[in-house]
Design a protein that fits this description.
GO cellular component, one term: outer membrane-bounded periplasmic space
Pfam families: PDZ_6, Peptidase_S41
GO biological process, one term: signal transduction
Distance between the termini: 49 Å
Number of strands: 21
CATH class of one domain: Alpha Beta
CATH topology of one domain: 2-enoyl-CoA Hydratase, Chain A, domain 1
GO molecular function: endopeptidase activity; serine-type peptidase activity
Protein name: S41 family peptidase
CATH architecture of one domain: Alpha-Beta Complex
Length: about 425
């Protein structure tokens, strides 16, 4: 079976394994002290399978051919009974399409896989449009704040509509166009923000114990996932925010430019990078690791192993440091783990998130799609980092307050300082 790789990111980041399902009261959100659990974008492999949806449905009606343990006949009989009751007695008009979509979404939720989700055709189209790093929106990444259950603004992209409107990292979106977001799934939040019904959206933002409405215009947003510069002592610095389709090209351009400037060492900043495309990650690693070296491998439920190797002839050969934190996840952990295993880089920061599993997005013939976990991945030395993360070689902790200040002041960035100190030796 052929695999085509795809990512899910930008406005949406996936829910972590400790998703808080508690309902919260309306009013001022209350957060617990300490580090917030962020929701992460994931490493996704897409399986494209041609089949007849109707024929497949016919198959599951008669038997449980796939070993899921579901009694399909019983389920269909009960659904028919519920439909009959609702059709005869339910007071309001029934939105049949909405009911059907939520049946599928319920199946995904029933797997108890925090990364499993059913996407309607419009939702899946949004994700597909985002693969190239370009989409219609306001220029933010959001996550589920598990303490309040509200969506949190994880990052605001510079010079985009949300940035210009005054939205900031750490803001909680408590309502969209006056509709509460307290119990909304992230995909529903994304859809509400990006709705084509109007060219503006009103976000109710909770910040510093105060609530305020912000009107934000929508536009075509194109993102640069790689930023770089040459620092003092010919230390190159590259920050990677996501692994999009074109991130590997941007990364190669950055490395090549820094090399032309006489780069003597390199810092790769993967802090708050929630991951993305596997091929993008392996292409980037091929610029750093010698040809034919194994970069990562996966194993599915049957133990089938798939290896991914470096295929580049032009690798960087300078001392390196990789910066990581608790929000470094998935594809960015693959890069970190690989460089650490081969002692190509010193890892500085705090233990990474620990997402060592792979999801697949299965496109269906009606334009919808189904995502679920299919495999684990391992570092070249065979390390399983899932729910463990990668421990840094040099631990440097930063509080939320310090991290926030470091976004605009390099002098406040203790982890970056340590990286530079290591490379200057």
């Amino acid at each position: 079976m052929d695999f085509k790789e795809k990512e899910m990111n930008l406005e949406l980041k996936e829910q972590d394994s400790e998703h808080n399902k508690k309902k919260k009261e309306e009013g001022s959100p209350k957060r617990k002290k300490g580090c917030f659990k962020r929701v992460l974008s994931v490493l996704v492999l897409v399986v494209i399978i041609g089949f007849s949806f109707f024929a497949g449905r016919q198959s599951v009606m008669t038997s449980n051919a796939y070993g899921t343990g579901l009694n399909n006949g019983k389920i269909l009989r009960k659904l028919s009974m519920l439909e009959a009751f609702a059709g005869n007695y339910y007071l309001n008009k029934i939105d049949a399409e909405n009911v059907e979509n939520n049946i599928y979404k319920g199946f995904a939720k029933g797997l108890q896989d925090p990364y499993a989700e059913y996407y309607t055709p419009s939702e899946y189209q949004q994700l597909s449009e985002e693969d190239a790093g370009k989409y219609n929106g306001i220029g933010i990444s959001i996550a589920k704040d598990t303490d309040t259950n509200y969506p949190e603004v994880v990052s605001v992209f510079k010079d985009q509509p949300a940035y210009k409107a005054g939205i900031k990292n750490g803001d909680l979106i408590t309502a969209i166009d006056q509709k509460s977001t307290a119990d909304m799934e992230l995909q529903d939040v994304v859809s509400a923000i990006r709705s084509e019904d109007n060219d503006k959206v009103v976000l109710t933002i909770y910040r510093d114990k105060k609530t305020k409405d912000y009107t934000v215009e929508k536009t075509s947003v194109e993102l640069d996932s790689v930023t770089y510069k040459m620092r003092k002592n010919k230390i190159g610095y590259i920050a990677v925010s996501q692994f999009h389709e074109n991130t590997d090209e941007q990364f190669d351009k950055a490395v090549t430019d820094l090399e032309s400037q006489g780069m003597k060492s390199l810092i790769i900043d993967l802090r708050d990078d929630g991951g993305g495309l596997l091929t993008t990650c392996t292409n980037m690693l091929s610029r750093l690791v010698a040809k034919d070296k194994m970069l990562v491998y996966t194993k599915d439920k049957k133990g089938k192993k798939e290896e991914f190797k470096s295929d580049s002839g032009k690798t960087v050969d300078v001392p390196m440091v990789v910066l990581v934190n608790g929000n470094t996840a998935s594809a960015s952990e693959i890069m970190t783990g690989c460089l650490k295993d081969y002692k190509k880089a010193t890892v500085v920061g705090t233990t990474t998130y620990g997402k060592g599993i792979v999801q697949t997005i299965l496109p269906l013939t009606d334009g919808s799609a189904f995502k679920f976990t299919i495999a684990k991945y391992y570092t070249p030395k065979g390390t399983d980092i899932h729910e463990k993360g990668i421990k840094p070689d040099v631990e440097v902790k930063m509080s939320d307050k310090q991290w926030k200040k470091a976004q605009t002041d390099d002098k406040a960035d203790k982890q970056l300082k340590k990286a530079i100190e290591i490379l200057k030796k």
